[in-house]
Amino acid sequence: MSGDEPYAGHNPVLVLLLSLAGLLATPGLAIYAIVTLVRVGRKRTRAGLFKAAAILAWVATVGMYTWGVLHLLLLDESAQAAACTKVLGGPDKRSEVVVDRYETSFIPLRFGCHVEGGKTYEAAIPGYLNPVAGLSAVTAVALTACAARSHTHHKERTA
């Protein structure tokens, strides 16, 4: 955000594209995970189990992030002000605290209301979202690495 636009939120085009990508990727990955689990059920290989678990972790990661982006998709200018008012204690306390800018980011996903005095209050994005998405992303990366290693190890043994 530039200094001349302190109340600019997230880029609406990027929010729309991320929403659409997540809404398509999450069910697609979920279907891929189910197909993989069915195949693993027949073969029962360690590589297959790691692969299925990794895909499920990616489903959780993409799904949680998409859930957060959908919150932003519904956040127009008036909703941004309302979210700040709500997090700052409602309309009664709103006159005591002045929001001087919004602080936004995509990673981690956040929409903050920065007040005079230097404190930023998180608004609009559920508090559980970033920790859950982060934990599932770390899990997905670790399981993907285990699946790749198991697959390579399995190929070497069968060759």
From TrEMBL:
Keyword Transmembrane: yes
Record-annotated membrane-spanning stretches: 12-35, 47-67, 128-148
Record carries keyword Transmembrane: yes
Keywords noted in UniProt: Membrane, Transmembrane, Transmembrane helix
Source superkingdom: Bacteria
Protein name as annotated: Uncharacterized protein
Lineage, highest ranks first: Bacteria, Bacillati, Actinomycetota, Actinomycetes, Kitasatosporales
